[in-house]
Structure formats: structure tokens, C-alpha cells
Known about the structure:
By secondary structure, the chain is an alpha+beta fold. It folds into three domains: 2-89, Uridine Diphospho-n-acetylenolpyruvylglucosamine Reductase, domain 2 (2-Layer Sandwich), CATH 3.30.43.10; 94-220, Uridine Diphospho-n-acetylenolpyruvylglucosamine Reductase, domain 3; 246-316, Uridine Diphospho-n-acetylenolpyruvylglucosamine Reductase, domain 1, CATH 3.90.78.10. It has seven helices and 17 strands. The chain has helices at residues 2-11, 46-59, 113-122, 138-144, 203-220, 246-252, 281-299, and strands spanning 17-23, 37-43, 63-66, 72-74, 79-85, 94-95, 102-108, 125-126, 147-148, 151-152, 157-163, 169-173, 190-200, 259-260, 263-265, 273-275, 308-310. Strands 6, 7, 8, 11, 12 and 13 form a six-stranded antiparallel β-sheet that branches. It has a four-stranded mixed β-sheet with strand order 1-2-5-3, covered by helices on one side. Strands 14-15-16 form a three-stranded antiparallel β-sheet, with helices on one face. A hairpin with a 2-residue loop joins strand 14 and strand 15 (263-265). Helix 3 (113-122) packs antiparallel against helix 5. The structure holds uridine-diphosphate-2(N-acetylglucosaminyl) butyric acid. Uridine-diphosphate-2(N-acetylglucosaminyl) butyric acid binds next to helix 5 and helix 6.
Amino acid sequence: MTTMTTLREQLWSDLDVEATLDAPIGALTWYEAGGRAEVLILPRTIESLQVLCRRCCEQGIAVRTLGSGANLIVDDAGVNGVVVRLSRGAFQATAWPQETAGGLAHIGAGADLMSLVQESARRGLAGLSQLAGIPASLGGAVRMNAGGSFGDTAQSIHTIELLTPVGEICIIPKVDLGFAYRTCNLPAGIVLAATVALAATDPVKVRAHVKEVFEYKSRTQPMSDRSAGCMFKNPIDPSTGQRQSAGRLIDLAGMKGTTLRSAFVSERHGNFIGLHAGGSTNDVLALALAVQQRVLDHAGIRLEREVVVWSQRGEDS
Ligand code: EPU
């Protein structure tokens, strides 16, 4: 921690940011558990973020971006380096299309996806309703290509604006982003904003679709548990070439309701690992490993984790 304390003058003291040393970032995730970051920085302007990234790059300091923390586990030991959160100023701004026929919305990466879905429905703009009920920041949703059986983020995106690690801004069209199931090949850097294609339609229809997607999630998923959504990606079934539900495989392997200290496999949906209040993310990770092993033994399928883990042990995964 001393490194960051001594570096802070050079890194951010002259920038338009809010900074917290030894910040409890685990508490900001949907698990409300996990460790701290050496420093959490909330930039208020793009320029200050640009300069910060450039300086961190020069000093070899890792920069991570925290979205809404909905698909993230922070290891109990926390992380070194800088964590940036785009929860201030320009990063939250949304410019909706002016044309009555729809068009492109320009949305800051820190904007809340659930609010965007609601507001687009209110305006009678179709293009985001497939993402109803998915907790995410827009930037996080792009990086993970968040979605479900009703659709994904990729289908809404037109372009993204990316801040490279050396502080340059580039605009990348969707075609160059290599979107695929729960992933994309975004270059290193921080998503600043995205343009999203929206079509004007009957507001009643958009709202009905949002309601349908949301009700399906509420019925089938433990939405009030502390969790990070689906822990594993749906694997491809070799016999059909189609993805199959990891939750169903976990269910068939008899793991629903299994507990490991403070963590438990949801009774409602097998792919959700919940955590009791005051629990430890190490318990979640240990239970995820046990689930993975059981499904491998039972079905011969190795599940791949969807949830991102930040830790001091090597690369994030
Ligand atoms: N099923 C079971 N047992 C379970 C869970 C599911 O038998 O414990 C069965 C269901 O009855 C259904 C089938 O499996 O017949 C598919 O279930 P579901 O509709 O819940 O879909 P999923 O494939 O398990 C995916 C996404 C979810 C998304 C839902 C609905 C992944 C890994 N999961 O789940 O996304 O909300 O579709 O759109 O792609 C997430 O990414 O965090 C997430 C939760």
C-alpha cells in the first residue's frame, strides 16, 4: 500500500477526480463481500481519466474498471493498483435520438443498464428491452456481452468509444468488436461510451416486452439473493452444437441447495451461487470449484466461469 501512497501526488492529486485509498470495493459488488483496492478513483472528466491512464501506464500500475459489480467477485485479499469507476459526470450522460423515427443514442459507459431499459421503453424506443432485469453498467454489459435467452448487448450496439491504456480515444464499430456468446474481443482499455441503435415503435409494445423478460427472470431466478448472476457460461452440447443450460446441468448433478460455509447453490436456479450476509468470496470460489468438479464427474462437461474474478494472484480471470 505504501507504493500508492507515495505515488498519489504524481498520479492524481492535480486531476479532477475523487480518490479513496484502501477502498472497500468488495462491498460495492452485488456479493457485498470481498477485499479492498489500493485506490478507487472516480474521475469527473474524460480528460482527467486520460491523464490518469497515461501516468499509470508509464509507471506500470494496473488499472481496472469497476462497473456495477454485478458480474464480479473481488477476492477477499483485495487487489493492487488503481480501480476506476465511471460513476460521475460525463460518464453517466445519455443523449437520446432526436428523430421521431429513432436513431442512435449516445450513452456514457457508467450509465445503469436497467434504468436505460426503462427509459427507452418510456420513450417508445425498441432496441434494449431484451436486456430487461440485467444489472450492469453499459460499459460492463459491452465487455461481457451481457444477455440471456431474449438477446444480448451486441445486438443493440452501433459503435463504442474506447480509451486506450496510453490515453488515446478511439471509436470502434460493432463489426470490429468480435461479439460472441458472453464475450467480445475489445482491445485493452476502458469503454467510455457507446452508441446504441434504437427504433421508434409503439411504447405499449416495448413496455410489454420489458415486462415479459423481467417476469421470466423473476420467476426463474433468485433475484433478491446476493449473487453475481449466472456463475458459469452455458456450454455447447457436442451432440447438438447448441448451448445447454449450465443451471440445468448443475441441477441434474444434484447440487442445488448445496452449501459451503457462507455460500450456497440456489434452490431456484442451479447456476446462481448465493452468499449469506457477512460471507466470504473465498467461500463462493470454493463452492464454484466444487460445482465444476461435480458436473465434470456427473456429465463429463467442464463448465467455464462467466463471472470475472479480481485477485492478487496473477491475471484477472
Ligand atoms: N433449468 C433447470 N434447472 C435449473 C436451471 C435451469 O432445469 O436449475 C432449466 C430450465 O427449466 C429451462 C432451461 O434449463 O428449461 C434453461 O433455463 P433458463 O431459461 O433459466 O436459462 P439459462 O440458460 O439457465 C440463461 C442465461 C441467463 C439468463 C437466462 C434467461 C447464461 C449462462 N445464462 O440462463 O443469464 O438470465 O438465460 O434469459 O447464459 C447471466 O448471464 O448472469 C444470466 C443469469
